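Dear Dr. H.,

I hope your travels went smoothly. While you were away I took the liberty of generating a structure for the chain from your last submission, since the lab meeting agenda had it listed for discussion. I wanted you to have the full record in hand beforehand rather than looking at slides cold. The sequence, exactly as received, is reproduced here:
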Amino acid sequence: MQLTLQKKKFGDALQLLKNADNPTLLQNNADITIYEFFDYNCGYCKSVAPIIMKAINRDKKVNFIFVEFPILSQDSYTASLASLAARKQNLYNKFHVSLMKVKGRIDEQKIFKIAKKIGLDIDKLKLDMDEPKIQLTLKNNREAAKLLKLNGTPAFIIGNTIYPGAITDEKLQKAIETYRKS
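The corresponding predicted structure, in token form, is as follows:
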């Protein structure tokens, strides 16, 4: 299933996402940007994480925006705060991948155990988690999701189309091809 929205709401949502300062994987000469709304406690999000990384490694013309959208629990929110704060120590990608590999639910204990294991300074991380800029990122992501009428994770924006739910490698490639042909 895919959704298409009014241009104004869609444009407003994309502007919010651009202002949100979400983590990115940018590639030279990219001709497409994919946004993924995800939650660290979402099993479907975890199942598509390797598909996303495979697509980015295979297609050097894809930019990817990680849209932290913690909606499943307070622990999800804590994980998003910690992940965004990990950017200050240049370890977002490593932390993100490590959290996505956790089987089952993520709680505060697991979050900080993983953070320590990958080399994050925990005291600095906890201080950085309280930064208003990080809170604003999550607020903007929620507002964008509301405009896009998203109420679950994962959800992908590819071009001007929303793909809610888990996506297979084949469907992701087809969505990218469809965008490039349009």
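Two observations you may find useful: The chain has eight helices and five strands. Residues 7-181 form a domain with the Glutaredoxin fold (CATH 3.40.30.10).

With kind regards,
E. W.
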